[in-house]
Design brief:
Strand content: 15-25%
Order of helices and strands: EHEHEEHHHEE
Structural class: alpha/beta
CATH topology of one domain: Ribosomal Protein L13p, Chain: A
Radius of gyration: 17 Å
Largest sheet: 4 strands, parallel
Helix content: 25-40%
């Protein structure tokens, strides 16, 4: 039996729809990262982008377990001295709820050229409305 390696022209991409209000952020981010990389398919090839396009809705209702919404911190740094800002997850949710999902997924992606290309197929929306209905995304449930 020969090992199958996917070629760039043979890849068939699909659109997947995740609802962030269904499962905790970490569990959802793992499933999203695997879908973006293509690790959920039998045709996964590590050096080729075989992943799907991922749409995440309801980012403003992202679920944290325990008291992480008050304790979890997001750190920004401007590059200047005393330019470090620390905000809680609750403050980030009010300001830009998409960042919660994007940061969680980015932490689970490879940080190279291929990882950046795969990450660019992620679209996150705060509410339930999204402009990709023509692509007929397949709903994915996370337990």
């Amino acid at each position: 039996m020969k090992t199958y390696l996917a070629k760039v022209g043979e890849i068939e991409r699909e659109y997947l729809l995740f609802d962030a209000s269904e499962a905790p952020v970490g569990r959802m981010a793992v499933r999203i990262a695997n879908a973006l990389r293509g690790k959920d398919k039998p045709t996964y090839t590590p050096h080729v982008d075989t992943g799907a396009f991922v749409i995440v809705i309801n980012a403003e209702k992202a679920v944290f377990t325990g008291n992480k919404s008050e304790k979890k911190e997001y750190v920004d740094f401007s590059g200047f001295r005393s330019g470090r800002k620390v905000r809680t997850a609750k403050e980030i949710r009010e300001r830009s709820p998409e960042r919660i999902i994007k940061d969680a997924v980015w932490g689970m992606m490879p940080h190279g050229r291929l990882g950046r290309a795969q990450y660019s197929k992620l679209r996150v929306y705060a509410g339930t409305e999204y402009p990709h209905t023509a692509q007929q995304p397949k709903k994915v449930t996370v337990k």
